[in-house]
């Protein structure tokens, strides 16, 4: 499992550090996301072309499309895991490439379809992020992600070593979601992060997401 997790991190570890233009701090605001004429290319071909998108703070948006249509690329651009080749991405009116990267990482939480579970124990995995989440925040996040039930059945609960935890695909996704819940920022971006959840669990997780968005 450790080798598999390392392989899933390879693309991120090989990315060059993203530059920033030092425009200063972002004003306190609810997390208004705007993409202006965004385009992304790879190997000379377009992945995204002329994307205009506005997501007001305190709202949620689902992007639906066939496999290979660019949803994951859009998710990466929206939180600045990837810079667009053309256009701009703004958070509360400030271009993301003008934000100091460490500050931006505190403002954007991600969850993925196949999350890399870093850390020694399950608790470490959920707590890991731009800051180390407290034990209370870890448990609140696990409940929101509907992970607390299966974690209670592990040999040592939250202290169970991740490498020894027999996790299904859906349980891994719930740990990734819990990690995102434990590090709330202005944006939470889910890249197919509910795909392995059963219908009941997905319903509860979506309700938790709506509550955090203020719905």
UniProtKB/TrEMBL annotation:
This is ABC transporter ATP-binding protein. It comes from the Bacteria. Residues 33-213 form the ABC transporter domain. Pfam families: ABC_tran. CDD domains: ABCC_MRP_Like (cd03228). The keyword DNA damage does not apply. It comes from Streptomyces anulatus (Streptomyces chrysomallus). The keyword Plastid does not apply.
